[in-house]
Design goal:
The complex is a heterodimer of chains A (259) and B (208). With 259 residues, chain A is of the alpha+beta class. Helix content of chain A is 30%, strand content 24%. Chain A starts with a helix and ends in a 25-residue tail after the last strand. Chain B has 2 domains: 40 residues, no CATH class; 118 residues. The radius of gyration of chain B is 22 Å and the shape is globular. The termini of chain B are far apart. The chains are: A alpha+beta (259), B mainly alpha (208).
């Protein structure tokens, strides 16, 4: 009896780590399986629908006081693009830089930094939440994206706004590592969605996306593309990059980054 | 939690309230990589924030919807008052119940004992709601919709800490809970969960 019990105990003792290892290996295999990834990311749409249900198009992200501004706002991702074209623009203080606004718009435009600075601006002190878990508070001044979109006039079939950047975060030779992001029209026309050219009352510095970066205050930091070059209105995200609407979404992150 | 290079190779270091500990192999550095938690404790086992988030946010929905059904049903069918809220007599006898538990003597009545009831109530109505609320407090969209959530935690980083502590308490609860199921008569417990039949030794008192 005692011997049987000892064997059973040894068997059970061995079983627990074995089952644990098997479960973990199973989780890794599931993480790689396309069908299971689809199951997991099905919650993204549910999250977006539920969050949008509770958010009115105009509900604002919290705005803070000057005293709350982080002394050391972290710069993440690309902090100094190496691309020759960008380096040349930066060397000339972005005087030759032009923001191309096109795609499904009535009147495509090329805007200089002076054009953008001449437009009515919005200033907001907001918290920037990184997907990595940290957050920083900064003061941003820029042109509401809505004003730019109204100036060029969206065609009726435009559904998303795509932002293409100067930086090649993936450091690929074929351009597939170029940073880009996209948002839908609800976020594009949100009053706090701005094209920022100033940070903390200074000209936007290079580590934070000079000359122009996007702010989408109700989503995570990776949505807020830096080093903007092109803004395009499109009806579908499927033809861009790997088809998921952004550099990080193409690499497994949620396109809707409200949480 | 971080990895540091030393003369004898990289080590894991964990700092809490200003005190640093070497935690090589568990926290900060394990399996010859610099990583927060060891691979046996993470899904997936390799480092992938994207995949980890997808698992997390999918099962967060499973947990929230399942929990909602459970809590509403338990209130409506009076499970909470009938089985979970301890009686006055039980609360008075808490000292005796604790001393019996310390000696690993468990009473085998039909009812949950007072320690079970209090820990179930704490988990169901304090820790689990807290973990959800703190999780939502980290969401930039939810902070715009319900600013009181992040105010309740007095900041996003505190919400993050509380989310982690509450999560750890849930793990602790599950470990202790399963351990108690095993050592207080595993077959009897499993049978009662599935069939509702729970055998009580004759001579031991039962509430019903």
């Amino acid at each position: 009896m005692n011997k049987i019990r000892m064997n059973r105990r040894r068997f059970l003792n061995g079983l627990v780590p074995a089952a644990g290892a098997l479960a973990l290996a199973g989780c890794d295999r599931l993480s790689e399986a396309p069908w299971f990834r689809d199951v997991l990311s099905s919650s993204e749409e549910l999250t977006m629908r539920v969050q949008r249900f509770f958010l009115s198009p105009d509900s604002l992200a919290r705005e803070f006081d000057e005293a709350d501004i982080s002394p050391d706002f972290r710069a993440n991702g690309t902090t100094n693009p190496r691309d020759a074209a960008y380096r040349a623009l930066a060397a000339n203080n972005f005087a030759d830089w032009r923001l191309s606004v096109g795609g499904l718009v009535e009147r495509p435009a090329k805007l200089s930094l002076a054009d953008l600075r001449g437009m009515p601006a919005r200033t907001q002190i907001t918290r920037h939440d990184c997907v990595e878990g940290w957050s920083s508070i900064g003061k941003w001044t820029g042109v509401p994206l809505a004003s730019v979109l109204e100036q060029v006039g969206l065609k009726p079939d435009a559904r998303f706004i795509v932002f293409t950047c100067a930086d090649n975060l993936g450091r690929s030779l074929d351009g597939s590592g170029r940073y880009y992001e996209s948002i839908d029209l609800e976020d594009a026309f949100h009053p706090q969605t701005i094209l920022a050219h100033e940070m903390n009352d200074q000209v936007l510095p290079i580590p934070h996306g000079a000359p122009l970066r996007l702010r989408v205050e109700r989503q995570l930091g990776y949505k807020m593309a830096k080093y903007l070059m092109n803004i395009d209105a499109v009806d579908s995200l499927s033809g861009l990059g790997r088809g998921n609407g952004g550099y990080w979404p193409d690499r497994g992150y949620d396109w809707y980054a409200g949480i | 939690m971080r990895a540091e290079n030393t003369d004898s190779g990289p080590i894991g270091v964990t700092t809490i309230f200003g005190f640093s500990f070497q935690t090589t192999g568990i926290l900060g550095y394990s399996a010859e990589t610099s990583r927060g938690f060891p691979s046996w404790s993470t899904i997936p086992s390799y480092r992938s924030l994207a995949s980890g988030r997808n698992w997390h946010l999918f099962f967060a929905w499973v947990f929230v919807l399942n929990g909602l059904v459970y809590v509403v049903a338990s209130i409506l069918n009076r499970h909470v008052w009938r089985d979970l809220v301890p009686s006055l007599g039980q609360i008075r006898g808490i000292g005796r119940t604790i001393s019996e538990h310390v000696r690993f003597r468990f009473d085998h009545g039909r009812d949950y004992n007072v320690l079970q009831k209090l820990s179930y109530l704490a988990i169901i109505f304090v820790v689990l709601p807290l973990v959800i609320l703190a999780g939502l407090g980290m969401s930039p969209a939810m902070d715009a919709a319900f600013p009181w959530i992040v105010d309740f935690f007095s900041g996003r980083q505190t919400a993050r800490t509380i989310h982690f502590i509450a999560g750890s308490l849930i793990v602790l609860f599950v470990v202790v809970h399963v351990l108690m199921v095993l050592i207080s008569g595993v077959w009897n417990n499993l049978r009662s969960m599935i069939t509702g039949r729970y055998s009580v030794k004759s001579g031991e008192k039962s509430d019903e």
